[in-house]
Structures are given as structure tokens and as C-alpha cells.
Amino acid sequence: MELSAEDRKLLTLARATRGRTGAAEGAAVRDTDGRTYAAASVDLPSLQLSAIQVCVAMAIAGGSTGLDAVVLMSEATELAAPDEAVLRDFAGEGVVVHHADLQGRPPG
Question: Alpha carbon of 66 to those of 43, 52, 75, 87: distances in Å?
């Protein structure tokens, strides 16, 4: 899978955020206004959020009304059902999702 230049930037942001925090996942999103948000998964005794959930929450808090693209870096080979649901709820069916392994390569 070939990433556009803009989606490669999202991959770089997701990788850097995950690396900086040591989290299990890193994600980055681009909203419909071209703004980007990057986040890592949160795993506290009182709060567990995926990296995508944190990105979407940040986008909503920033006034975004939708997403154009998502990059997720994780060990999983498929998007988790809760992440699919939050993306569908906020971004609709047309959002482009790139799922990369922890080295930044698409699975498969």
C-alpha cells in the first residue's frame, strides 16, 4: 500500500507519539480542515483508551467536524471494533484508515 505524502506525515506523527510515550499504540488523524492530531493509547487503572479514541476526542475538542484520514500503529492486524465504531460515529464510512505494524509497515 502506497501512502500519499500527507498520509506519510500521519505515519511519522503516530510513530513519534508512540515512541515518545512507550504506549502500545500510536495514532494520528487528519480532520476535514487539514489539522492533524496525534496520540498514544492510555492504559491506567481508571482509564483505558485506544490511540484512535484519544485522537478523535482531541479532534472533537478542537472543533473538528470530521476526518479525512487515520493512521494506527499497533501489534493488532485489524482495527478493533470500538475503534471502528468511534470512526464511523465521527467520520462516517468514507474515512481512509491505514493500519501499520510497529515498524510502520502495512500488515499483510
Answer: 26, 13, 26, 9
